[in-house]
């Protein structure tokens, strides 16, 4: 990456990506992970990535920083003549606990969709009860992903609908995917490990 591939609205690490918890590295490994030997572990091999930081060094997020991150994604190099925006935004976080319908970031997600960018969020870790969805994953403009166990059954932690948050009228979550004992990377260079994303 170049200087326009990473954005830290807190200004704590403006020059290069950081990850103190390992969650971002593990999530990114599931998406595009691989190593120099040619081993592929990600679901989108060959894809490139950029990142905007929404949690600061203390592990806290501010509303303004999240808004700034969404805005940055729309035009990372601040030049509308270059095509540098991503096609997909993966945001592996949620607001509060379930059930929730917090519309704070709905305009941001709507702006992404208007720009042709698909926003993907977790269904949340507040199952197994019905109506256990969380925002922003339950916005009608978002794609929500629930978690499956190795057995193929839905994880008891995975959030589920129904939800009419923000005018949503379709099934929640939109899709389910493996979320237990998934091979991915950690934040230590060159390490691969088994990740249990539903525990984050």
- How would a crystallographer describe the biggest sheet? 4 strands, parallel
Spatial strand order of the main sheet: 3-4-5-6
Radius of gyration: 17 Å
- N-C termini distance: 27 Å
Helix content: 10-25%
Mean pLDDT: 89
Number of H/I helices? 3
Question: How much of the residues is beta strand, in percent?
Answer: 15-25%
Sheet/helix structural class = alpha/beta
Number of beta-strand segments: 8
Shape: globular
SSE ordering: EHEHEHEEEEE
Residue ranges: pLDDT <50 for 5 or more in a row?
A: none
Explain how this protein is built:
By secondary structure, this protein is an alpha/beta fold. It is 16% helix and 15% strand. The chain contains 3 helices and 8 strands, in the order βαβαβαβββββ. The strands form 3 sheets. It has a 4-stranded parallel beta sheet with strand order 3-4-5-6. Strands 1-2 form a two-stranded parallel sheet. Strands 7-8 form a two-stranded antiparallel sheet. Helix 2 runs parallel beside helix 3 (106-114).
Architecture blueprint of SSEs:
Blueprint: E1 6-7, H1 23-32, E2 51-52, H2 63-74, E3 88-90, H3 106-114, E4 118-122, E5 143-148, E6 175-178, E7 182-185, E8 192-195
Parallel strand pairs: 1-2, 3-4, 4-5, 5-6
Antiparallel strand pairs: 7-8
Helix pairs in contact: 2-3
């Amino acid at each position: 990456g170049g200087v326009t591939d990473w954005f830290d609205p807190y200004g704590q690490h403006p020059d290069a990506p950081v990850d103190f918890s390992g969650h971002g590295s593990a999530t990114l490994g599931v998406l595009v992970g691989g190593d120099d030997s040619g081993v592929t572990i990600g679901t989108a091999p060959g894809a490139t990535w950029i990142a905007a930081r929404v949690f600061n060094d203390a592990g806290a997020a501010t509303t303004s920083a999240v808004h700034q991150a969404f805005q940055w994604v729309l035009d990372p190099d601040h030049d509308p003549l270059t095509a540098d925006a991503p096609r997909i935004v993966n945001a592996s976080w949620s607001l509060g606990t379930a059930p929730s319908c917090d519309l704070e970031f709905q305009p941001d997600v709507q702006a992404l969709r208007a720009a042709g960018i698909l926003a993907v969020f977790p269904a949340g870790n507040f199952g197994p009860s019905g109506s256990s969805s969380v925002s922003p994953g339950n916005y009608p403009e978002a794609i929500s992903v629930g978690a499956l166990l190795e057995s193929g059954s839905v994880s008891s932690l995975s959030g589920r609908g129904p939800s009419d948050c923000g005018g949503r009228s379709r099934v929640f979550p939109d899709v389910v995917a493996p979320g237990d004992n998934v091979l991915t990377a950690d934040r230590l260079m060159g390490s691969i490990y088994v990740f249990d994303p539903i525990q984050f």
